[in-house]
Specification:
- By secondary structure, the chain is an all-alpha fold.
- It has one domain.
- The chain is built from ten helices and two strands; from the N terminus they run ααβαααβααααα.
- α2 runs parallel beside α5.
- The longest helix is centred in the middle third of the chain and has 38 residues.
- The protein is globular.
- It starts with a helix and ends with a helix.
Length: 244
């Protein structure tokens, strides 16, 4: 596997420059929004690093799946995958390299988000408000990172399965929104059957439960249905799909 080749190939494109630039600007803006405004709206006048990162999960839950889909399915959409397979015949090796490259970009952006969340929280709490709260940092590293990680895994699964940037982006961004909306409606109408069905595919809720240590065996079902199964089908298709 050569993830460095796929990473360099992605970063050298104009599209990646635009996406990453907008991503960094969005992360910085939401970090400032979360960290600096908290003292004005919180009763105790403090700024909490976990709350700042929760605000940051909004752009991250869109940015990271988009990058995962673009890096795994992009070459199928622009037909350049044919040249890649001619130069690197091992299809599984190419797929593994793309996944590792996407994870590398994800780690860098998440690390940047955590750093900006901490900085904005400190500035908002110590310089603007009545103190910064970092005691919830452990919860940030478990619950919130689990939620972000679930979005990345779902984006990778959709990119591998659909092998189309358009379809992959629609699925990676649209399905979580539909599931979240349906979950809210099921709670409003009080239907336990519908709630259980939605819970079986609600990856974000399962990640939250897993990260907080309150998960049961049922929380593994969304991981199986929304990540492992589509990824397995995608790997099979990746190996057998005709090119050209």
């Amino acid at each position: 596997m050569r993830p460095d080749i796929d990473l360099r190939g992605y970063l050298d494109t104009r599209g990646a420059t635009i996406v990453l630039t907008l991503s960094v600007l969005a992360i910085a803006a939401f970090a400032a929004l979360g960290g600096l405004i908290q003292p004005a709206v919180m009763p105790q006048g403090t700024s909490d690093v976990e709350f700042t990162f929760i605000v940051l999960t909004l752009p991250l839950s869109l940015i990271l799946p988009v990058i995962a889909v673009l890096m795994t399915a992009g070459e199928w959409s622009d037909s350049s995958i044919q040249n890649t397979f001619l130069q690197r015949p091992g299809r599984l090796g190419v797929l593994g390299s793309k996944v590792l490259a996407a994870l590398a970009v994800t780690v860098v952006l998440v690390a940047l988000a955590i750093g900006l969340a901490a900085a904005a929280t400190w500035i908002g709490g110590e310089l603007v408000g009545d103190g910064a709260v970092f005691s919830s940092f452990d919860s940030l590293l478990t619950t919130q990172l689990a939620v972000v990680g679930s979005a990345v895994l779902f984006g990778l699964a959709m990119g591998i399965l659909l092998q189309s940037t358009v379809l992959g982006l629609i699925a990676a961004i649209g399905l979580p929104f539909v599931i979240s909306t349906a979950s809210g409606l099921a709670m409003v109408f009080g239907s336990e059957t519908v709630s259980d069905v939605i819970r079986a595919v609600d990856l974000t809720a399962a990640a939250t439960a897993l990260g907080s240590g309150q998960a049961t065996a049922f929380e593994l079902l969304p991981l199986l249905l929304m990540v492992l199964l589509p990824a397995a089908l995608g790997v099979r298709r990746w190996n057998r799909r005709e090119v050209g």
